[in-house]
From TrEMBL:
<feature type="transmembrane region" description="Helical">
    <location>
        <begin position="78"/>
        <end position="100"/>
    </location>
</feature>
<keyword id="KW-0472">Membrane</keyword>
<keyword id="KW-1133">Transmembrane helix</keyword>
<feature type="transmembrane region" description="Helical">
    <location>
        <begin position="36"/>
        <end position="58"/>
    </location>
</feature>
<keyword id="KW-0812">Transmembrane</keyword>
<protein>
    <submittedName>
        <fullName>TMM60 protein</fullName>
    </submittedName>
</protein>
<feature type="transmembrane region" description="Helical">
    <location>
        <begin position="106"/>
        <end position="129"/>
    </location>
</feature>
<dbReference type="Pfam" id="PF10269">
    <property type="entry name" value="Tmemb_185A"/>
</dbReference>
<dbReference type="InterPro" id="IPR019396">
    <property type="entry name" value="TM_Fragile-X-F-assoc"/>
</dbReference>
Length: 134
């Protein structure tokens, strides 16, 4: 399952455009859709990314794979998996709040997003300031 850079960019652009069109229609009150329906393009895109990530992580389980190669790679893939799950939690909580399924405070809705942003900043700082010592 390899996609070229052009295919990944086109797929990202397509799902983002579809999501934004649906969001504008909802915000202009042209479409009385449920908020969960508005976020379907985001969830389809996330599902594609999760499947590709899990397939890559499962490739480590095949016979003949040397676990010493790419120990950093599996940590990065685990971070990507956690980030995707945090984004999914935020989207679900946001849709539940917008649809008025729950009465939780807006600050609680944003906790997964804040955790994702803090983790992203830590990952960025680690990648910038980490000095490899051989």
């Amino acid at each position: 399952m390899r996609m070229s850079l052009a295919q990944r960019v086109l797929l990202t652009w397509l799902f983002t455009l579809l999501f934004l069109i649906m969001l504008v229609l909802k915000l202009d009150e042209k479409a009385p859709w449920n908020w969960f329906l508005i976020f379907i393009p985001v969830w389809i895109f996330d599902t594609i990314l999760l499947v590709m990530l899990i397939v890559k992580m499962a490739g480590r389980c095949k016979s003949g794979f040397d676990p010493r190669n790419g120990s950093q790679n599996i940590k990065k893939k685990a971070w990507y998996l956690i980030a995707m799950l945090l984004k999914l939690a935020f989207c679900l909580a946001l849709c539940a709040k917008l649809q008025r399924f729950t009465t939780m405070k807006l600050a609680y809705v944003f906790i997964p997003l804040w955790a994702l942003l803090i983790g992203g900043m830590a990952e960025l700082g680690y990648n910038i300031f980490y000095v490899r010592r051989d």
